[in-house]
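Title: Prediction job returns without error message
Component: structure pipeline
Severity: low
Priority: P3
Assignee: unassigned

Description:
Job completed but the reporter wants confirmation the result is attached to the right record. Sequence as submitted:
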Amino acid sequence: MRTHRIFAGNPMGWVLTGVILALFAQASISYGADLLLAWPLEGATSPSGSNGPLQPYEVRKGQIALAQEILRTPAGVAEREAGIVGSQRDTDAVLIGLFADVRYELLIDSVKHHADGTMIISGKLKDHKIGTVVITIGPDGFLMTVQDMNRSRLYRVKGDSRQGSGTVTEIDMKKMPPTIR
């Protein structure tokens, strides 16, 4: 069968092509992770920052949404050490999208639930020798720190747990001033 006969005057050829492309797109979007943990909100990236000018070490700011499924509080002590969404595997992997061009796959090392309703997720970035992620989610707010040493970038996210949205700041670690602790 020749390809020009499949597409010429035959809408089913186009439908078949669309279905195949959709399947490939779904496979590439999933990237092997079970859950999309955070994603950028469209049109919410600002190179100048929404709260005034950026610091010299800040590259850009944007808005992200956090998956509501992880914001639920465990019912009892038995769930406190459970993985995100009750996975039964040894390692959980989730996707984190911080900007349209910045996505990471997070390999979760631990998830801790505390009696006060706080949850702490820690892990490392897949395919990075040194890349760490720490997410702290409380009843009122959340903080996320993503450190990508391959690109010398630090991403700080803070937001409202009740709304599931927050602000992400991309920081160039080479331009950060030294800190005294």
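Comment from assignee: result matches the submitted record. The helical segments are 3-7, 11-30.
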